[in-house]
Specification:
With about 240 residues, the chain is α/β, with parallel strands linked by helices. The chain is built from 10 helices and 8 strands. Helix 2 runs parallel beside helix 3, helix 6 crosses helix 9 and helix 9 packs antiparallel against helix 10. The relative contact order is 0.10. InterPro entries: 6-PGluconate_DH-like_C_sf (IPR008927), 6PGD_dom2 (IPR013328), 6PGDH_NADP-bd (IPR006115), HIBADH-like_NADP-bd (IPR029154), NAD(P)-bd_dom_sf (IPR036291).
C-alpha cells in the first residue's frame, strides 16, 4: 500500500529506527506499544545508542505504559548529537477529533513529556493537526486522552438517549438537535458527531454508521479509564455504566 506511493517500507520496527531521525507510532493497545518499542526487533532493540532523537507515540493507552516506554527511551544515548538533543526523548501524544479530523488535518494533540521536546515537535504536530496542548510530564498526554474519551462516551450516551426519548415524544431529531445546540445540552456529540441518521451530513450516522470510531475501541478506552481510576482509588460510576452499555 505505502510502497506503491513511494514510501519506503522496513521489515521490523528496529529497521525503521535505524533509518529514522523521528519515529511516530499509533497502535491499538498498550501491549502493542510495548511490543513495538521494547520487544524483539523493536524500536529500542539496540545496544546503548539510537539514531532517532524523538519518539512520538499517539496511541490511546494507559498512562503507566507511556511512562514505562518514556523511561526506557531515556536510558539510551544518541548515535549522533542533533542540535540541542543530547539524548533521545519520548512524547506521548494521543489525538482527538476522530476520523473526520484526521482526514481534514484538524486533529488535537495532547502531549506529555519534556516541554522543550513538545515545543520542538510542534511543527510536526501542526502538519497533522490544528491544536497542540502540552499536558505535563510523561504519561499526562495519555491521561488527558482517556479522560477526554470518558467525557465523550458519557455525553454521546446522554445525547443518544435524549434524542431517542424526544423522538418517542413526537419531536423530530433535527428539531431537538437545534434545541440542544442553542441550549445547555450543546456538546461535540450533538453539534459535530450527531448520532441520528440524516441530522448531519458527512458523519457516520448518516453513512450507515460506516467510517466512525468503532464501539470496541471505545470499550477498550473505557477499560483503560476503569483501570486507571482503580489504580488511584477513584470511584467512577459513570464509567462502569458506560462500559455495561
Amino acid at each position: 500500500m505505502f510502497t506503491d506511493k513511494g514510501v519506503p517500507a522496513k521489515q521490523t520496527p528496529f529497521d525503521v529506527a535505524e533509518a529514522s531521525d523521528v519515529v511516530i507510532t499509533m497502535l491499538p493497545s498498550s501491549s502493542h506499544v510495548l511490543d513495538v518499542y521494547t520487544g524483539p526487533n523493536g524500536l529500542l532493540d539496540g545496544e546503548s545508542r539510537l539514531r532517532p532523537h524523538l519518539f512520538i507515540d499517539s496511541s490511546t493507552i494507559d498512562p503507566e505504559t507511556s511512562r514505562k516506554v518514556s523511561a526506557a527511551v531515556s536510558n539510551f544515548l544518541l548515535k549522533e548529537k542533533k542540535g540541542f538533543w543530547e539524548k533521545p526523548v519520548m512524547l506521548d501524544a494521543p489525538v482527538s477529533g476522530g476520523v473526520l479530523a484526521a482526514e481534514a488535518g484538524t486533529l488535537t494533540f495532547m502531549v506529555g513529556g519534556s516541554e522543550d521536546a513538545c515545543l520542538a515537535a510542534k511543527p510536526l504536530f501542526l502538519s497533522m493537526g490544528k491544536n497542540t496542548i502540552y499536558c505535563g510530564g510523561a504519561g499526562t498526554g495519555s491521561a488527558a486522552k482517556i479522560c477526554n474519551n470518558l467525557a465523550m462516551a458519557v455525553s454521546m450516551l446522554g445525547v443518544s438517549e435524549a434524542l431517542a426519548l424526544g423522538q418517542s415524544l413526537g419531536i423530530e431529531a433535527d428539531t431537538l438537535t437545534k434545541v440542544f445546540n442553542s441550549s445547555s445540552a450543546r456538546c461535540w456529540s450533538s453539534d459535530s458527531y450527531n448520532p441520528v441518521p440524516g441530522v448531519m451530513e458527512g458523519v457516520p450516522a448518516s453513512m450507515d454508521y460506516a467510517g466512525g470510531f468503532a464501539s470496541k475501541l471505545m470499550a477498550k478506552d473505557l477499560s483503560l479509564v476503569a483501570a486507571s481510576a482503580k489504580a488511584v482509588g477513584l470511584k467512577c460510576p459513570l464509567t462502569s455504566q458506560a462500559l455495561e452499555m
